[in-house]
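We now fix the convention by which a protein and its fold are recorded. The integers have meaning only within a learned vocabulary of local backbone shapes. A record is reproduced here so that you can trace the correspondence yourselves:
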Amino acid sequence: MSEVPSRSSDKLLAYGRMYRLERRLETFKDWPFREDCKCTPERMALAGFVHCPSESEPDVACCFFCLKELEGWEPDDDPCFNSNCVKKQPNRKIGGQKIAQFREEVEQTHRNLQTLFSIAQYKDHSQPSPP
């Protein structure tokens, strides 16, 4: 019997890549709004969005922080204004904790996961294979 690779670790790694602004910006290469609008690729990525289009919906963007998908973007739509996203409301509370504090904890968790994955990768390469 062999071990099946975990799909959740793949998702975690993909999620970790989108944490960086540059990676989110790279997803907007086919974004329909480029100039003379509020929802340029740069502004979308800065606001925390990832472009995740489909054939029938070329303008779907997912908020990296709250995972809400939005479609039907118009040139005058401002990606920084999404009143339901916790990222954009630092003083709102979730379970008695301010969003800003929650974000700090999420960022620390992200750093811890990066360290954990680095250690796991190092261990995988440093141990000899069984005969």
